[in-house]
């Protein structure tokens, strides 16, 4: 069975992978996350997030809802895009070899 890989990455790593689309992706994650507590009530903004790269080469933002302090996450699909693949592999390699 294939082991699921989740690699923590930094914002710098994400910027390296997605280049010009960085701001757009961060904005999407921060302001378009779903919070079950705040749905329909408060504006949801994700704060204090960390980034995870999964085995599909997609990025998961895991953070906190600014309105209610609940834990929220946003999945951003970048793994399907061929243009990011090479740099994603470079980041993965560098993380895996570190330990
Ligand atoms: Zn909330």
Record the SSE blueprint.
Elements: E1 6-9, H1 11-18, H2 22-31, E2 46-54, E3 59-65, E4 71-76, H3 82-96
Helix pairs in contact: 1-3
The chain binds zinc ion (ZN).
Task: Give the low-confidence spans.
Answer: none
- The whole-angstrom Rg is 14 Å
Largest sheet: 4 strands, antiparallel
Measured as a percent range, the helix fraction is: 25-40%
Domain count: the total is: 1
SSE order, one letter for each helix or strand:
EHHEEEH
Q: How many strand segments?
A: 4
The proportion of residues in beta strands is: 25-35%
Tally of individual helices: 3
Strand order of the largest sheet: 1-2-3-4
Rounded mean pLDDT is: 93
Helix and strand content put the structural class at alpha+beta
Distance between the termini: 23 Å
**Looking at the structure, what is the overall shape?**
elongated
Care to describe what's here?
There is one protein chain. With 99 residues, the protein is an alpha+beta fold. It has one domain (6-96). Helix content is 33%, strand content 26%. The protein contains three helices and four strands; from the N terminus they run βααβββα. It has helices at residues 11-18, 22-31, 82-96, and strands spanning 6-9, 46-54, 59-65, 71-76. A four-stranded antiparallel sheet has the order 1-2-3-4. α1 runs antiparallel to α3 (82-96). The protein is elongated. The structure holds zinc ion. Zinc ion is lined by residues 35, 37-38, 44, 65, 67-68, 70.
């Amino acid at each position: 069975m294939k082991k699921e890989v989740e690699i923590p990455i930094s914002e710098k790593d994400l910027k390296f992978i997605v280049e010009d689309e960085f701001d757009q992706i961060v904005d999407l994650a921060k302001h378009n996350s779903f919070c079950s507590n705040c749905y329909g009530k408060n504006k949801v903004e994700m704060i204090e997030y960390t980034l995870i790269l999964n085995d599909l080469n997609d990025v998961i933002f895991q953070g906190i809802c600014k309105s209610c302090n609940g834990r929220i996450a946003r999945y951003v699909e970048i793994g399907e895009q061929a243009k990011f693949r090479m740099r994603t592999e470079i980041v993965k390699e560098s993380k895996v070899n570190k330990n």
